[in-house]
UniProtKB/TrEMBL annotation:
Molecular function GO labels: ATP binding; glutamate 5-kinase activity
Main localization (coarse): cytoplasm
EC top class named in words: transferase
Native source species: Candidatus Enterocloster excrementipullorum
UniProt-recorded name of the protein: Glutamate 5-kinase
EC number from the UniProt entry: 2.7.2.11
GO annotations of cellular component type: cytosol
Binding positions for substrate per the UniProt entry: 59, 146, 162
Domain Aspartate/glutamate/uridylate kinase: 13-249
Length: 287
């Protein structure tokens, strides 16, 4: 049983929460779900009220751009992806800032690229910026800069997805908990949407090669990019850096408060701090 480990989540002080596009949009239309976003903002503002440091890694820029421009399919070219991201990131931040302001909660936009993070000086500056924002009580809202971050642009690689980005941010700022909100309840022995006999896994004491292989058969949703394989890679980064991680269903964003209260929701991955942890190894896929 993981009752004891769950109770320890109540004591976490620096939390990174990642929410995916599929958890921010209406499944029928792909348009932003403003009611759910408002609930998310209320929950995060409450966490700040408890004295927690909170960082939000938010997908949804491309989906918001598609909505703004009346385009209802995933972009089918690099140029479209970049254009939707440019339009959508501005709209997404406008929504976040407007709703957070109703709770008198300051926010900041932080757009990251892998190219920036692999540079020692830039990475150090990013870390200092996060630390100062959190000291000031600000909630940083993080996304990858999709306008320029793509492996199809020479010399500019990408994080791959926001699951991995959120784990890298957690490691960068020394977070002690990472919560991934997704369109699935947590980790299963197989994809439950394809195999009704798949068993739910509540606790993962350690990331094993077998576990990583198990996740490779899954794929992302129609509006997101990350499947279970990406989440397990994120779990490896987070737990090696010293953070616990929980994968939970983002359909009801109040699940965040349940997790923080020690309620048995989602799959809990226990931290296994690696004394030789070096973020650069993970940025360069050298692990």
């Amino acid at each position: 049983m993981d009752c004891g480990e769950r109770k320890l989540l109540r004591e976490k002080k620096r939390i990174v929460i990642k929410i995916g596009s599929s958890s921010l949009t209406h499944p029928e239309t792909g348009r932003l779900n403003l009611l759910k976003i408002e609930k998310l903002i209320r929950v995060l503002s409450d966490l700040r009220g408890e004295g927690k440091d909170v960082v939000l890694v938010s997908s949804g820029a491309i989906a918001a751009g598609r909505q703004a421009l009346g385009y209802h399919r995933k972009p089918d070219s690099l140029a479209q992806k970049q254009a939707f991201a440019a339009v959508g990131q501005a709209r997404l931040m406008m929504v976040y800032q407007k709703l957070f302001s109703e709770y008198n909660q300051a926010t900041a936009q932080v757009l990251l690229t892998k190219d920036t993070m692999v540079n020692d000086s830039s990475r150090y500056n990013a870390q200092n910026t996060f630390d100062e924002l959190l000291r000031l009580g600000v909630i940083p809202i993080v996304n990858e800069n999709d306008t320029v971050s793509t492996s199809e642009i020479p010399y500019v690689d990408s994080f791959g997805d926001n699951d991995r980005l959120s784990a890298i941010v957690a490691a960068l700022i020394g977070a002690d908990l990472l919560i991934l909100l997704s369109d699935i309840d947590g980790l299963y022995t197989d994809d439950p949407r394809r195999n009704s006999g798949a068993s739910f896994i509540r606790l993962v004491p350690e990331i094993t090669p077998q576990l990583l292989e198990m996740g490779k058969a899954t794929a992302g949703s129609s509006v997101g990019t990350g499947g279970m394989s990406a989440k397990l890679e994120a779990a490896r980064i987070a737990t090696d850096s010293g953070a616990d991680m929980v994968i939970a269903n983002g359909d009801q964003v109040e699940v965040i408060m349940d997790i923080m209260a020690g309620v048995d929701k989602g799959t809990l991955f226990l931290a296994h701090p690696n004394l030789d942890f070096d973020l650069m190894h993970y940025l360069n896929n050298e692990y």
